[in-house]
Amino acid sequence: MRTKTVFSCQNCGYQSPKWLGRCPDCNSWNSFVEEDYSAPAAKTKERSALYKDEPVLLKDVEVREDHRLKTGISELDRVLGGGIVKGSVILIGGDPGVGKSTISLQVSNQLTKKDATVLYVSGEESVAQTKLRAKRLGSPGIGNLYIVNQTDLSLITEYINKLKPEAVIIDSIQVIFDPALSSSPGSVSQVRECAGILTQLAKTSGTSIFIIGHVTKEGAIAGPRVLEHIVDTVLYFEGDRFSIYRMLRAVKNRFGSTNEIGVFEMTQGGLDEVKNPSQIFLSERPKDVPGSVIVPILEGSRPLLVEIQALVARSGFGYARRRAQGFDFNRLSLLVAVLEKRVGLSLEAEDIFVNVAGGIKIEDPAADLAVAASIASAHREAPVIPGSVVLGEVGLAGEIRSISQAGLRINEAERLGFNHCVLPKNNLRSLNFKGEGLELIPATTLKEVLDIILKK
After folding, report:
1. Measured at the alpha carbon of residue 319, what is the angle toward residues 314 and 324, in degrees to the nearest 5?
2. 196: exposed, middle or buried (C-beta count within 10 Å: 0-12, 13-18, 19+)?
3. Which helix (H) or strand (E) element contains residue 447?
4. Model confidence over 144-158: pLDDT tens digits?
5. Full domain range(s) for residue 214
């Protein structure tokens, strides 16, 4: 069969007959690598003979709750939508050292406790090294947990067909290669082809497969973007590798919500679940300090109370700086403009820094009011009244707009002992809140909120 040479972008998989300095698809520079390309007609024919699946009527398909396999880690089950769907393919990405291999090994041990057979394919570590890591995690191996150091995909598929495990861990997809392809492991063609074969094997055998993927400097999973379209679920580990807290977020999930997050704490014995993340994030907050405001945000069905910190200082340069950590920079610029125009704060010559404590990234519009209040508090050197939380979306006219799921947020604030809650007036009209320990303060404009919560 005739083989030709193509140049493939290592970020998105775009192919070109000649080398290009910049990819026309994803706009990345110097990402093209020369690869051998052969027509896949014969290989496709051979595979279709192996995997035969006859059409069935949709009404005849039986779906039961036992099609989900509980991992024994409630935070992971929450993100997955209630457990592992049999025959699903789950991609786990994250920075080096964030805990991808750790949680994979913990999941393997938890599944074997339920009499499940698990195959752990370690392409980057030897079997002895994996054993040492398992001993450090306090689970040196129980039940039907098989470990193999292998990178040849043809041998891995043989192991899966022989053992017929309930779950398979591939650590990692960047080192696995298909002998039928001439390109090197980690290239676009290898990653795409190996992921496609593993996905087809999962669907036909009912085996759930976890695939660990490396990430690039920009935070995206290395390899072609089509990899995320092949798999059923994409999970990302968030958090600084030097921080003890990790957040597991689903950015794609065919069997559940993509709004859920799982919170873990990295310890010597592995990743421990954080049952009450709000209390953890607020445990070190300062008392009566200007620029510190608490806001109840919503991550899926879980309310979290986080601290917004702001620092406003006179700029020593001709251009005032704006910096945001964990909050959208463009949204910050909009809120600063509203504070200047609608409230009358003089911020044009001030450096403004906003930080979300705990390493959380906020996309919830309900945090707008807290960010604006923290900036005003830092600028006026006036702390907010003790025991207060604020929530609401800020419009360009300085109005406070209603938010979703206000009841869940308020109940979480009351549970943690807060006394005052400033919220949009429209939310109060439709709210059925019977708590006695939390005072609800309705507001319609940003100026009104600042007059209420800032100490004179």
Report:
1. 75
2. middle
3. helix 446-453
4. 899 999 999 999 999
5. 66-275
Cis peptide bond upstream of 292, omega within 30: no
Pairing state between β 420-424 and 388-390: parallel
Decide: pTM greater than 0.90.
no
Contacts of 329 (CB under 8 A, 6+ apart): 322, 323
Q: Could you give the CA distance from residue 271 to residue 241 in angstroms, rounded to a whole number? A: 13
Task: Take residue 393 and report the two structure tokens written for it.
Answer: 């979306």
Of 275, 294, 318, the residue at which a domain comes to its end is 275
Are both 228 and 175 inside the same structural domain?
yes
One-character DSSP codes across 55-92 = ---GGG----GGGEEP-S-HHHHHHHTSSEETT-EEEE
**pLDDT tens digits for 174-215?**
899 998 887 778 777 788 889 999 999 999 898 999 999 877
Residues 288, 396 share a domain: yes
Q: CA nearest 389: which of 307, 300, 326?
A: 307
Q: Do 26 and 97 share a structural domain?
A: no
Rounded Cα gap, residues 431 and 65, in angstroms: 34
332: its two tokens = 């910050």
Residue 161 tokens, joined:
């067909």
* pLDDT tens-place string over residues 405-440: 898 899 889 988 899 999 999 998 888 777 678 899
Q: Are residues 285 and 271 in the same domain?
A: no
Asked whether residue 49 carries a pLDDT value surpassing 60, the answer given is no
Same domain, 219 and 367: no
The candidate with the shortest Cα–Cα distance to 254, out of 63, 89, 93, is: 89
Handedness of CA 158, 159, 163, 167 (dihedral sign): negative
How many other CB atoms sit within 10 Å of the CB of residue 353? 18
